[in-house]
Fold this sequence. Notes:
- This protein is 72% helix and 0% strand.
- The chain is mostly helical.
Amino acid sequence: MDRGSILRVWLPLLAGLWGLGWLYLYGPGPHDVLREIGLSLGLLGLAGVILARYTLGRSFSITAKATALVTAGIYSRIRNPIYVSGIVFATGVILMLRQPALWLLLLVIVAMQIIRARREARVLEGAFGDAYREYRRHTWF
């Protein structure tokens, strides 16, 4: 295990687990089935983000870049698993917090992720052409 994978995968995983655990135990709202569903969604979303980051390796970037066309692992089914998993994670957190206004924030996040995904798709299609178009036909979002 190299330093890069520790910083890119394991440290965020530990931070996310700690944050979800703290929120579940000490956050506002009742401890009921809805809170447990929120925790489950939060864990599922966190796992998806970490798995996607691990699969991307050094191809990950904050801005759209075309360093490699990653089509293995979770990317063989979903083109943007970090965005999808992040939304699942946020949904879980919102369920645990029980703050209705946060649902509006989630709508903004979803819109932003769609815009980012479209921007990335243009960059990847420009760099990888037919290979990316074929990949896109066989994957979701």
